Amino acid sequence: MTGLAGLGVLVTGGGSGLGEAAARHFAARGARVTITGRRQARVEAVAREIGAAFVAGDVTVAADRDAMIKAALAHAGRLDGLVNIAGNMLRGPIETLDEAAVLALFHANVVGAMLLTGLAVPHLAATRGSVLFVGSSHTRRAFPGASPYAATKAAVQTLTKVLAAELGGRGIRVNCVVPGGVATEINVRAGLMTVDEARARQLAMLPMQAIDRRGTGEDVAAAMTYLLTAPWVTGAVLDVDGGLGLGVTRA
Description:
Blueprint: E1 8-11, H1 17-28, E2 32-37, H2 40-50, E3 53-56, H3 62-76, E4 81-84, H4 99-127, E5 130-134, H5 147-167, E6 173-179, H6 186-189, H7 195-204, H8 217-229, E7 237-240
Parallel strand pairs: 1-2, 1-4, 2-3, 4-5, 5-6, 6-7
Helix pairs in contact: 1-8, 3-4, 4-5
């Protein structure tokens, strides 16, 4: 793959956040994008704006995963890229964690993406395509209270390397981006802090003082585009975090 034009790309979690940013970025560069998400109205609205196909669904549901692959093939006639972005967040003190909630998080962030990737393999092998996962800066810095979320993202980053080794013989590349300090509202939706508090906290941990901004979905989408189209890159876990993982705290 040397460019996105004409390629079939399936993006999970495409109705908001990084998934929406990625879908918009890919579509603007000529990819035939299919987006999925649990909120049908939102997914449909984004799809109509960017000229993509859509299917409402949950990656934790087997029938929905099958429908996602079928929708992408129906739209593009081929599958060149699977971008696994859909997921949830759960944080809290270790002694307060609920077993069912932790298992649901692993189902959403790890198991669903793993099984969807398995369904995509025959189609990606036919196009010598690639898979993308999304990790987290929570695997680079230890944030108290983040044990469930960090554990799922560490699993995803390890899964990336295992599948790169497993699927390389079939011509499929597997890579992962590790965002951090990005201006999404996932922390706010999780009830952790206000938008202003999130911004101030993240900026204090970024070493790029001359720029003095958080990352954007477009920053991450550009890195995803590189990984989708770089024929000599597989098994990579690429930080896109403004240096957040370096562990610097600004005065």
